[in-house]
Amino acid sequence: SNLSWLGYGCLKQDWTLIAVNTVGAALQTLYILAYLYYTPAKRPVLLRSLLLLAVLAAGYGYFTLLIADPRTRLARLGLFCSVFTISMYLSPLADLAKIVRTRSTRCLSFPLTVATFLASTSWTLYGLQLRDPYITVPNVPGIVTSVVRFWLFWRYPPGQDKPYRPLPA
């Protein structure tokens, strides 16, 4: 995601997008390298990482070699980044049925919800300021899903979770 938005920022010559996503891509790369170093199952992680690099190379080739017109390239890359960002913001709601069924928000992170709300709100406002729908539109679901998660934390407070009963010995 960071690399895609970095490419979008470079095409637009938007230094805010470039700076934020350069830092994000560097941190994500460090995380992946640390995970690869410390994981006991190196082969599957390495194969997934190599597959991701191949997809990244294919995407780079598509956007730089096959689309010659810079405006078309910017529009298609913006659309790609938007779809990717929307799917990222919607993914925490995959546990929605489990949360309602168990009446527990144990599988949700409150600090991550706050961070997501603040980040998506900031990017939405930035996109509105630039009048850039590729930045504005995909961040609105981040605000909406954060509000839904805040409501879930209110509806099913963490202290309300049922404690586990010890099994009889």
Polypeptide structure, described:
The protein is mostly helical. It has 2 domains: 1-66, no CATH class; 70-158, Monooxygenase, CATH 1.20.1280. It is built from 7 helices and no strands. It has helices spanning 2-12, 15-38, 42-66, 70-90, 96-102, 110-130, 133-155. The longest helix has 25 residues, at 42-66. The radius of gyration is 20 Å and the shape is globular.
CATH class of the largest domain: Mainly Alpha
Shape type: globular
| Helix and strand pattern | HHHHHHH
CATH second-level architecture of the largest domain: Up-down Bundle
Task: Report the end-to-end length measured between terminal Cα atoms.
Answer: 50 Å
Give the count of structural domains.
2
CATH topology of the largest domain, anyone?
A: Monooxygenase
Poorly predicted segments: none
Number of helices: 7
Please tally the β strands and state the result: 0
Q: How confident is the prediction overall: mean pLDDT? A: 89
Compute the gyration radius: what is it? 20 Å
Helix content: over 70%
SS-based structural class? mainly alpha
Largest sheet: none
Oligomer: single chain
Q: Strand share of the residues? A: under 5%
What's the arrangement of secondary structure elements?
Layout: H1 2-12, H2 15-38, H3 42-66, H4 70-90, H5 96-102, H6 110-130, H7 133-155
Helix pairs in contact: 1-2, 1-4, 2-3, 4-7, 6-7
In short:
The protein is mostly helical. The protein has helices at residues 2-12, 15-38, 42-66, 70-90, 96-102, 110-130, 133-155.
